[in-house]
Specification:
Helix content is 34%, strand content 22%. The strands form three sheets. It has a six-stranded parallel beta sheet with strand order 5-4-1-8-9-10, with helices on both faces. The protein has a four-stranded mixed beta sheet with strand order 3-2-6-7. A four-stranded antiparallel beta sheet has the order 11-12-13-14, sandwiched between helices. A hairpin with a 4-residue loop joins strand 12 and strand 13. By secondary structure, it is α/β, with parallel strands linked by helices.
Length: 302
């Protein structure tokens, strides 16, 4: 079973405007959506659609936090969050004139003692894999992520920014940077597949059993103790890249927790991500027949 930890979730608010208002004017829209946000939560959503057992946890508070919990109930996403006193953050995306503008809150300041509550929640679930994903709210530092990794017998995977990856000290079963985060974590060039292979291998040596790096249209690489694998992205009509990295991670983990090989896990991750980018926004495509796409993914090893 895979448990995800989202320490800084958000209520994601997206609005469509014909144009920005002039100063002092009011813009109106009837096109707006709100939905639960946070990388760990997203991974759990994809795992549910892959028929993998999962529970989402992390920190929620206030009316926005309650909204997220209610939405997860409605979507059938199992969860057990730790309640905090301050309100969960609101992130806003404005779409207008063919452009996208994002305003992300830092999140509520959190007392580090709540990490102990998160650890107790994880122990109560007793997962095989714990995934800590997304940003940390003010008050939470990389050492608190290490604390989660060291608190039990579970394997721990992380999907965090490059600066945080550099500061982690515990041993991790897997990390999943994107191309930019891989460069930030290693100081290496990642513009080509070969450069990304080398950077992923370097990052693995700093305390990660596997490094899975998502490379956009170039697919993904996985560095292991034995080799560095590469799987090109499938040739699909790309509609929206939202959720590509989270879905790739979900696909990889769903195979690893089932005891499949690293190559099989990478194939599944690329197949799921390739299907996700073919649908708009946060829509989750049908994944019940994903094996047909998995079989089309080619993996090479170096």
């Amino acid at each position: 079973m895979i448990l995800t930890v989202t320490l800084n979730p958000a209520l994601d608010h997206t609005v469509q405007l014909d144009a920005f208002p002039a100063p002092g004017e009011v813009a109106r829209t009837g096109d707006a959506t709100v939905h639960p946000g946070g990388k760990g939560i997203n991974v759990s959503k994809y795992l549910v659609h892959l028929d993998a057992e999962t529970v989402a946890t992390g920190l929620l508070g206030g009316a926005f936090g309650q909204f997220i919990a209610d939405e997860l109930d409605e979507e059938g996403i199992p969860h057990d969050f730790v309640e905090i006193g301050d309100r969960t953050r609101l992130n806003t995306t404005i779409l207008t004139d063919g452009e996208e503008y994002k305003i992300n809150h830092d999140g509520p300041t959190v007392d580090p003692s709540v990490v102990g509550d998160v650890v107790e929640t994880i122990r109560g679930v007793d997962p095989d894999i714990v995934v800590v994903a997304g940003s940390c709210p003010p008050g939470i530092e990389p050492r608190h992520v290490d604390r989660i990794a060291l608190a039990g017998a579970w394997d721990t995977a992380v999907d965090v920014d490059g600066a945080t990856l550099r500061e982690l000290d515990a041993e991790y079963a897997l990390c999943k940077p994107n191309e930019t985060e891989l460069a930030a974590a290693t100081g290496a060039e990642t513009g080509t597949v070969e450069e990304s292979r080398a950077a992923a291998s370097r990052l693995r040596e700093s305390g990660f059993e596997r490094v899975v790096a998502s490379l956009g249209e170039k697919g993904a690489v996985m560095a292991t103790a034995d080799s560095v694998l590469h799987a090109p992205a499938l040739n699909v009509n790309i509609v929206d890249t939202v959720g590509a990295g989270d879905s790739l991670l979900a696909g990889v983990l769903s195979e690893l927790v089932a005891g499949q090989s690293d190559a099989a896990a990478l194939r599944a991750g690329v197949a799921v991500a390739s299907r996700v980018v073919s649908v708009p926004g946060t829509d989750i495509p049908a994944l019940g027949d994903i094996q047909s796409d998995v079989e089309r993914v080619h993996v090479s090893a170096r």
